[in-house]
Amino acid sequence: MAFETDAEAIRAMMASLPDADPAKARVVRIRDTLSLGTLEVSAALAAEVAAHPALEPLGQAQPMPLDGAGNLAALSDGK
Predict the structure, then answer these.
(1) Alpha carbon distance 79, 12 (integer Å)
(2) What whole-number distance in Å separates Cα of residue 71 and Cα of residue 60?
(3) Is the pTM here over 0.85, yes or no?
(4) Mean pLDDT of the chain
(5) How many domains does the chain contain in total?
(6) What is the pLDDT of residues 30-40, one digit of tens each?
């Protein structure tokens, strides 16, 4: 599948989940597989991140940062 924007791809991904409730979606966003120093997780994973000894929450849940064209803002590599 190909999509014009990140927003379209995210909507399709969410529609493919067994439980279509966005509040229950267990989603992780990474910059790339070589840059795992910083990642974003959905609110449904926040408690697990907080309880994991190797992970440190850096903020609260926020909407995905889409620009005016419907594409995701760049994700920091944690450096």
Answers:
(1) 31
(2) 21
(3) no
(4) 89
(5) 1
(6) 988 998 888 89
The secondary structure of the chain, three-state, reads CCCCCHHHHHHHHHHHCCCCCHHHCCCEEEEECCEEEEEEECHHHHHHHHHCCCCCCCCCCCCCCECCCCCECCCCCCC
Structure token pair of residue 67: 């620009």
What is the DSSP secondary structure assignment for residue 38, as one 8-state letter?
Answer: E
For 52, the domain range is 1-79
Q: For 3-35, what is each residue's pLDDT tens digit?
A: 999 999 999 998 998 887 888 889 999 988 998
Show the tokens assigned to 36: 């795992």
